[in-house]
Amino acid sequence: MWRKLLAGTAVISMKSAKCSDSGMATNDLPEYTWDEIKTHKTPGKSVWIVMGKGVYDITRFVEMHPGGDKILLAAGSSADAFWNLYRIHKQDKVKDMLESFRIGNLKGGEKLEALNDPFSGDPNRSTHFIAHTEKAYNGELPNDLLTEKILTPNTEFFVRNHLPVPVVDENTYELELVFEDDKCTSFNLKDLKSKFPIVSVESSIQCAGNRRFEANQQGVTRGVEWRGGAIGNAVWTGIRLRDILKHLGEINPEYKHVQIEALDTDPNGPFGTSIPIEKAMDSDTILAFEMNGETLPRDHGFPVRLIVPGYVGVRNIKWVKRITLSTSESPLIWHKRDYRLFSPNDSLGNVNFEEREPVYDMPVQSVICSPIDSTSFDSKNENVNFKGFAYSGGGRGIVRVELTTDHGESWIEAQLEKRQQRLGRRWSWAFWNANIPSSDIEKEVCVRAVDDAGHGQPESLKSIWNYRGLLTNSWHCIHLIRK
Amino acid sequence: MWRKLLAGTAVISMKSAKCSDSGMATNDLPEYTWDEIKTHKTPGKSVWIVMGKGVYDITRFVEMHPGGDKILLAAGSSADAFWNLYRIHKQDKVKDMLESFRIGNLKGGEKLEALNDPFSGDPNRSTHFIAHTEKAYNGELPNDLLTEKILTPNTEFFVRNHLPVPVVDENTYELELVFEDDKCTSFNLKDLKSKFPIVSVESSIQCAGNRRFEANQQGVTRGVEWRGGAIGNAVWTGIRLRDILKHLGEINPEYKHVQIEALDTDPNGPFGTSIPIEKAMDSDTILAFEMNGETLPRDHGFPVRLIVPGYVGVRNIKWVKRITLSTSESPLIWHKRDYRLFSPNDSLGNVNFEEREPVYDMPVQSVICSPIDSTSFDSKNENVNFKGFAYSGGGRGIVRVELTTDHGESWIEAQLEKRQQRLGRRWSWAFWNANIPSSDIEKEVCVRAVDDAGHGQPESLKSIWNYRGLLTNSWHCIHLIRK
Predict the structure, then answer these.
(1) Contact: B413, A345; criterion CB under 8 Å
(2) Cβ–Cβ of A361/B454 closer than 8 Å?
(3) Where are the alpha helices (DSSP H) in A31-173?
(4) Does residue B360 fall inside a structural domain?
(5) From the CB of residue B384, how many other CB atoms can be counted at a distance below 10 Å?
(6) Is residue B364 less than 8 Å (CB to CB) from chain A?
(7) Is there a domain that residue A83 lies in?
(8) Considering only CB atoms, which chain B residues are within 8 Å of A363?
(9) How much is the pLDDT for B153?
């Protein structure tokens, strides 16, 4: 459909054929002030948006927008933030299409009020991060900083946001619970913290798209180009989800899913997902207020984050607003249309989302964090020291990490630093390190981990590549240069 | 140590140097009757054994026996059954060593009473089975019979026995429970069947050594050479283990493991293992009396078998005798010295069993059951139909099965026949089938499955091979001949 739309634009007269002009002022067009622009935000009447210095009348385009109503969030305002949010806009063809709707320039010296930028309330982030996108913010630590501490400091924990960070007043915050079709209740933060036992759980959280950068070497995927650092480990403190659910009464066995809606929203509705009732009732599934002993940072879900140990990052919903017991999975687009177990044969055009199951659990993963890829090593030193992390989903722990300098002909077992966690509840990553004789290193060094179900990592990325670059977990290989 | 012993035998005069003579009558030696032989079974005095027609005085060897005291089970009797049980004996060097202890022949016409054969009470088995060993019995269906029924008929369910099948009188059978250091209780079969709710669970059981035949193509392993058929699926009916444990009272949180001892024994003690308390308390972990609606067959654990869905076959203990709540894992040799997550670097000589964790959960598996390997296909037919099973441990279901005719360059998705089971409780295998155009088939066709944690199967066996041939789950490939 997107392709069809792009093709369709050929019949619209192109006011600017050069994509480099997109958003730049053009001398032959009238100027408009923000006050005037703001009056053009009514679908069916006229819809203007601003991009950079350009003013565009997109009335005719609104209904054709592949992203649906979302475009109206920028009506009478600036669309810059949204274009940053959705990578698909970053193509010359899309920019050309936008220019075809150009009607004028933003009046010189005019500034958009901060209020118009939905990301203007976002918190500051660590200067250590590699920021892949600013709006919404997505940032990770460089690999070699990742394995400094087995509990990742809060400020260094990767940030994966889909939307602007909600601004929440803890005094008025309420968590809503819908536990039967006709019953609804809510708790304020004080209730939550005082009415239920407080528990702590140590759990790693990994984004399904971690290592997408490598997947993109194999073929173009869609999403943030994580280098391996979209994972962290923390102690989460809060109350058990099951304590709240049980507090409400006997749970009707028809309710097989717990839907969670968040406070971060866009015009299509809130961010959200669902988890199976069995996982919701697990003693380690909690509503957390604290991360590593501190108040939950805004970027990690202040005031309340759902922690679902062993599950993929996206199910660990931040800024929890509403919890609903339901007979069905979440109907929200974030649950239904993404984060699924895609096949190498799937593509955006042909995937049947209903046929692909959501990712909850995750396969075993390991990364060489240092040395970093493409650095040189001194062959006069006897050994080269390798360090990294390993992790598996579903509470499966790491039992072995092995490195190879001959692409799997032989393996060198690494030393493991594991957390003490019970079988089936091994939620935390493991660190590992190994010394390899310099003389053994030709060029490539790869790592693989084995979890307690005996799962290893696939040797080639080709066998697991998918168009969303999810669950990239083939052997992690780096190349080193002898000096 | 074994090697050392073999080397040591060189100083003992060899009465027969030809290994083909082992167990045959030799003309120049005296004859002994069973009555006389039976009097020589006292360690420290004299120990004779019989192998075939040969009589051997092994008094000097008893203490050196690598298998420990087990050798005394045959004292004053026939050792044939035990040699069949332990493959390590089937070497020319071992036979030569035995002949060095030869003192005579069994008197002509003498027959060993059935009582002396611990396997004489074993039940009859399906004629469909490939019987890998008779004593103890280990048999599987040929692959092409395996996928006929999604619930494997009881008589066709693979049999993996370590020891003789116990002969149990259901009227006197008692299940013992040791639930505190000083408390012990027991239930007879009538109690078990009447005092607790009866439940049914559908679960596949797979032997950790399934597909060891292939592992042996890569390098010699130790164990039964299963061809892929060491798996079956059944509905098990019985009572929840947790109902019995709760019946006994509050469980002290110090008890982290449930040890299970079985009725099948050898001189070293009973067969047995342990499982973590969390798994023991799971609603689907049961003590089964029935298999597919019939009384549990003797080969499958009559009268009571522990069913631990999602766990490797060996933990699904047959002929349960005693259940003990404990602070530690089972001390039995079958638990401590085998069925562990071995590395490709481990060998019998160097493995530190304590360092390797027991296999409980199992990785994703799939097998092409038909056509069978090395058969021809008619290239005049448009398609070749492929069928098989896929399975993953830990309650993870199969989400996708794919075949490749070009060793992973491209994949053809198979049709899945899955059981309706809840996420996290997907205990049953899935069947699959796919039609592949004859023209696409060069020679090799491989299958791989993906489970709901996103785990696939490794493409090469080399990366997972271990000396015990456990958890062999690389892509299953067959070769076909065009005609």
Answers:
(1) yes
(2) yes
(3) 34-38, 80-85, 92-99, 143-146
(4) no
(5) 20
(6) yes
(7) yes
(8) 453-456
(9) 98
Q: Is A354 on the interface with B (CB under 8 A)?
A: no
Let me know whether A313 and A383 are in one domain: no
A31-46 exposure pattern, b = at least 16 Cβ within 10 A, e = fewer: ebebeebeebbeeeeb
Active site residues of B: 65, 89, 160, 207, 339
C-alpha distance from B463 to closest chain A C-alpha (Å): 6
Whether residue A85 is predicted with pLDDT greater than 80 in this model: the reply is: no
Token readout for A186 is 């809510």
Q: How confident is the model at residue B9 (pLDDT cuts 50, 70, 90)?
A: very low
Least confident segment among B36-50, B221-235, B370-384: B36-50
Q: How confident is the model at residue B7 (pLDDT cuts 50, 70, 90)?
A: very low
Domain with residue B8: its CATH number is 3.10.120.10
What's the mean pLDDT in A298-308?
Answer: 98
Please answer yes or no on whether A425 and B256 come within 8 Å at the CB atom: no
CB B51 within 8 Å of CB B80: yes
Amino acid at A156: E
Cβ atoms of B262 and B271 closer than 8 Å: yes
Residue among B310, B315, B350 nearest B334 (CA): B315
Domain limits at A96? 2-114
> What phi, psi does B19 have (nearest 5°)?
-70, -25
- Sign of the C-alpha dihedral computed for residues A18, A22, A25 and A31 taken in this order: positive
Strands (E), A134-285: 138-140, 159-160, 174-180, 183-188, 198-206, 231-240, 257-266, 269-276
Identify which of A345, A453, A459 has the shortest CB distance to residue B463. Answer: A459
Say how many domains are in chain B.
3
The answer to whether the CB of A76 falls within 8 A of the CB of A58 is no
Look up the CATH number of the domain holding residue B274: 3.90.420.10
pLDDT at B10: 32
- CA dihedral for B422, B426, B429, B435, sign (positive or negative): positive
Bridge-based pairing state of the strands A102-106 and A138-140: unpaired
Chain B interface test: which of A282, A315, A423, A432 (most B C-beta within 10 Å): A423
Per-residue pLDDT band at A86 (split at 50, 70, 90): low
Q: Do B361 and A462 touch (CB under 8 A)?
A: no
Q: Do A423 and B360 touch (CB under 8 A)?
A: yes
Question: C-alpha angle B410/B413/B415, rounded to 5°?
Answer: 165
Instruction: Please report whether residue A222 resides in a domain.
Output: yes
In a shared domain, residues B157 and B40: no
Q: What is the phi/psi pair of residue B290, to 5°?
A: -130, 150
**How far is A366 from A369, CA to CA, in rounded Å?**
9
Identify the bridge partners of residue A466 per DSSP, sorted by sequence position: none
What SS3 state is found at A348? coil
Domain boundary among B114, B131, B149: B114
One domain, residues A91 and A147: no
- Indicate if A89 belongs to the active site: yes
Is the peptide bond preceding residue A166 cis, with omega within 30 degrees of 0?
A: no
CATH number of the domain within which B374 lies? 2.60.40.650
In a domain, A203, yes or no: yes
Contact between A279 and A360 (Cβ < 8 Å): yes
Pairing of strands A320-326, A174-180: parallel
